Amino acid sequence: MIGLGPMGQAMTRTLLAAGHPVTVWNRTAGRADGVVADGAALAATPGEAVEASDLVLLSLTDYRAMYDVLGGATASLAGRTLVNLSSDTPDRTREAAAWAADHGAAFLSGGVMVPSPMVGTEAARVYYSGRGEVLEHHLAALRPLGTPEHLGEDPGLAQLMYQAQLAVFLTTLSGLMHATAMLGTAGTRAGEALPVLLSFTDTIGGMLRAGEDSPGTALDAGEHPGDLSTVTMMGATADHIVETSTSLGLDLALPLAVRSHYGRALENGHGGDGWTRVIDSIRTPR
Q1: What is the pTM of this model?
Q2: Measured at the alpha carbon of residue 156, what is the angle toward residues 155 and 162, in degrees to the nearest 5?
Q3: Which fold has domain 161-283?
Q4: Was domain 6-153 assigned CATH 3.40.50.720?
Q5: What b/e readout covers 192-229, taking b as 16+ CB neighbours within 10 angstroms?
Q6: What is the CB neighbour count within 10 angstroms for residue 232?
Q7: Domain boundary assignment for the chain
Q8: What is the rounded CA–CA span in Å between residue 38 and residue 17?
Q9: What whole-number distance in Å separates Cα of residue 6 and Cα of residue 12?
Q10: Cys-Cys link to 77, which of 105, 168, 220, 275 (CB 3.0-4.6 A)?
């Protein structure tokens, strides 16, 4: 295991608990103290860590860090499998897979879809992409981290799914903070606001799944029925949020972005369509 931030430490402890010997390395050596006390072996160099196993997991800030860390250990990569569980773009992931192949290593990209305290729990899911036989060969070692799901041979697919889910996650968090700030202008404390707002977020999935046809079915068919909510109606709501936020003196970046999606749909004559029509302006930006 190379990289011992909270996620790397959690994965190391999970693998140790599953009975796997784990050798670790981290740029700041002191971060290894806890997992070494739990039974991990500490490598003095990245090369020593790589040579300890035919399976090398990386949990780093980004893919650039992989080159920085392993640049002096490329001679040790041949015949080994690199599983990079760091976050970056799909294109950089594909470049990394080619780099690993140039040095004789197999490569899997992975996205861990839970925070570090949930690694190894029943809720944990890890997306992988790359050669299926490589994942199958190491499945027994990787399975303790979370339920594995292989998305395909293209190394970029796991990162694409990871970033797509984080797009939902991060915008939801920003939305919650914006709503909390709105209510805060009236003296509502965050401790009072967030339980109400979170309760609403819990219902959104159910709202989107209601009825016989999901939004996904309609989107795949190129249909945007406006029987429940139209672009015109949702666009008016987006206008009201911008106006309210302006009057409260709040940052407008998020509400303006949302309003722009509905504005484009209205400009293109889709006011009577359902809210899913905004995907057009996302797919084809100005």
Answers
A1: 0.90
A2: 120
A3: N-(1-d-carboxylethyl)-l-norvaline Dehydrogenase; domain 2 (1.10.1040)
A4: yes
A5: ebbeebeeeeeeeeeeeeeeeeebeeeeeeeebebeee
A6: 16
A7: 6-153, 161-283
A8: 9
A9: 10
A10: 105
**Residue 163 predicted with pLDDT over 70:** yes
Helices (H) and strands (E) in the chain, counts: 13, 7
**Residue 274 buriedness (CB in 10 A; 0-12 / 13-18 / 19+):** buried
Query: Is residue 266 within 8 Å of 235, Cβ to Cβ?
Result: yes
211 pLDDT band (50/70/90 cuts)? low
Give the span between the Cα atoms of 30 and 260, in whole angstroms.
Answer: 48
Task: Give the largest Cα separation in the chain, rounded.
Answer: 64
When pLDDT is averaged across residues 29-50 and rounded to a whole number, the result is 97
User: Above 60 in pLDDT, residue 171?
Assistant: yes
Q: Is the pLDDT of residue 218 over 80?
A: yes
Least confident of 21-35, 48-62, 197-211, 251-265: 197-211
* Per-residue CA distances from 167 to 43, 50, 51, 107, 247 (Å): 36, 33, 36, 25, 28
With bands split at pLDDT 50, 70 and 90, how would you rate the model's confidence at 206?
A: confident
Distance CA 8, CA 4 (A): 4
Q: Helix or strand or coil: residue 150?
A: strand
For residue 207, pLDDT beyond 70: yes
**Are the C-beta atoms of residues 218 and 274 closer than 8 Å to each other?**
yes
Classify 223 as helix, strand or coil.
coil
Residues 67-122 pLDDT 10s: 999 999 999 999 999 999 999 999 999 999 999 999 999 999 999 999 999 999 99
